[in-house]
Amino acid sequence: MSTIVVKPVQIIGTCPAGLTLEDGFRIEGMRLVNDGGSTICFLALGQLPIGQGVWQLQSGERFFSHVSCPGCTSELAQENRVVFLLSHEDKWTLSQRISEYLRLCKLHAEPEAARRLNEQAIRHQEWGEYAEAAQRMEAALEAFKQASG
Predict the structure, then answer these.
(1) Integer Cα distance of 93 and 30 in angstroms
(2) How far is residue 108 from each of residues 83, 105, 133, 144, 145, measured CA to CA in Å?
(3) Fewer CB atoms near the end CB (10 Å): N or C, the chain?
């Protein structure tokens, strides 16, 4: 089974449990491992795709996924929510770049040059060439950032 890395990639507001973008966990087999001593609240833990979702990642059916805690807003003045990225440990760099690209697509129109590089990255992923895919995604991010100013 693949080791799955679980890390926050976006924190909207503040995390009441104190998670930061530097915190992270690993899913190794049936265990949630926390080497850094970070805390995770039960609301966020409950959103991890336990069962079928983790199995899909561990079996190789997928190599990354996003999940968000439901947010803590009931008695707070602002939304507080954490978005997590789950990824195969050996594909973490590619997964981070895809995550950032998807976030930029939500904020801005996708530039043509970035879209072409993203398509190339997808082809490399399909061929199992993950390092090449990560390089294309890095170039796509650069093209996106240049076009967005």
Answers:
(1) 24
(2) 19, 5, 22, 9, 10
(3) C
Locus of tokens 């590089």: 117
Give the CA-trace dihedral at 131, 100, 74, 77, to 10 degrees: 140
**What residue spans of the chain are helical by DSSP H?**
42-45, 52-59, 92-107, 112-126, 130-148
> What count of residues does the chain have?
149
Question: So where are the chain's domains?
Answer: 4-89, 108-149
Q: How confident is the model at residue 16 (pLDDT cuts 50, 70, 90)?
A: confident
Region for 128 from its dihedrals, namely left if φ exceeds 0, alpha if ψ lies in -120 to 50, beta otherwise: left
- Nearest alpha-carbon partner for 15 in 79, 109, 103, 89: 79
Helix 92-107, helix 130-148: angle, nearest 10: 30
